[in-house]
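Chapter summary example: a protein plus zinc ion.
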Amino acid sequence: MAILQIRTLGDPVLRERCRPLERFDAWLRATVEDMIETMHAAPGVGLAANQVGIPLRFFVYDDGEGHQGFVANPELFDLDAFEEIDEGCLSIPGPFHPTRRALRCRLRGQDLDGRPIEIEAEGLLARIFQHETDHLDGKLYIDRLDAAGRREVLRQLRELELKRVQGG
Ligand code: ZN
């Protein structure tokens, strides 16, 4: 297993609309193991394939509340009861900002063997599913904020980067 490099804001792969995953093979299994290790090490609760430079439609997740796994070719249904809760992203490391998401949703996709799955999600898990599916469409959570929110996240990001540079 290996820790993969997480791509950050400005990397064009984060803006790609990823292609459907068609092969459920040994390469996929090995890549998913690396992605799970990378997500846990970060630490984060979800990681989409294009965040590690692979423009294919799949992601891994672990909400820390007992729900973890892999989904390929996800589609969201029945989004319901919107709320604004702090959200962050491993590709925009540091800042968090209230972001509007559905409290509940249903996700359909495929498992590691390509078999169809359907998961009903609520709360953090539902938020992860929406956040990661957005990634696969080339979308980041800051795209869902208003101009002031986006400016605030980018300001915090610059501040943190400056501190990292100065701190050595
Ligand atoms: Zn993210």
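Key point: The first strand starts at residue 46 and ends at 48.
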